[in-house]
# Entry
Amino acid sequence: MAECVADPRGWVRLDRDRTSTARHTVPAYPFDLPDAPEFPGRLYPLEAKAAVAARCWTNATAAACDPAPDFLAAGLQGT
# Structure
């Protein structure tokens, strides 16, 4: 999504933002993060049964060698 490599399909793409400094300074680029007060309206609770049955994936390196990491203890390290 950051378009730092050529498209593997060889497709031509529009890079109108090629010189935008946001590409390298905004962690969520090219997406806009919602403001913190908006999060409660975007989150939905799950019953414990559904959460246990759900298959989840993460790119947090804290889970690379432990399939049940304590993300709260790890904080933001390894994410």
